[in-house]
Amino acid sequence: MPGGNVKEERPWWILVGGRHRLGRALAEGLAPEHNLVLTSSRSWREEQPWIDELSTGTQVRTLCWDASDPGLVPQMMADLERLGAEGIQFQSAVLVAGTFPEQA
Questions:
Q1: More confident residue, 6 or 90
Q2: DSSP assignments along 6-68, one per residue
Q3: Closest-CA residue to 28 (of 13, 44, 42, 40)
Q4: Is the Cβ–Cβ distance between 36 and 15 less than 8 Å?
Q5: Using CB atoms within 10 A as the burial measure, which of 25, 26, 49, 74 is most buried?
Q6: For the chain, what is the radius of gyration of the CA atoms?
Q7: Cβ-contact 39, 16 below 8 angstroms
Q8: pLDDT-based confidence at 100, cuts 50/70/90?
Q9: Quick one: 79 exposed, middle or buried, by C-beta within 10 A (0-12, 13-18, 19+)?
Q10: Cα→Cα distances 88→16, 22, 37, Å
């Protein structure tokens, strides 16, 4: 749509484990044309300069999903429901996380 908000027109991708190595490279490659939701088992506070750089021209959301937390599944569902309520619909999901302990 001419004159529309380019950020809103970009498709959303979620990268589960999007903090280091392959996830980071994918995020950097996708950011020029996609909005991103990135997850990590740790706080994103230390990565804020990278997130700010990545956010130039795109929207980036970060979530903390710790696979060792027994409450992870309900937290994931709540986070995804909240994102959906905000109108975020994912075009794709990439799982690059290294460890997922067995859960129900």
A1: 90
A2: HHHHSPEEEEET-SSHHHHHHHHHHTTT-EEEEEESS-SGGGHHHHHHHTTTS-EEEEE--TT
A3: 13
A4: yes
A5: 26
A6: 14
A7: yes
A8: low
A9: middle
A10: 16, 24, 10
Distance CA 13, CA 43 (A): 20
Place 38 in a pLDDT band, splitting at 50, 70 and 90.
Answer: very high
Write down the pLDDT at residue 2. Answer: 42
Specify the amino acid at residue 60. V
pTM of the model: 0.82
Q: What letter does residue 2 receive in the DSSP assignment?
A: T
Contact between 96 and 26 under an 8 Å Cβ cutoff? The reply is yes
Average pLDDT of the chain is 86
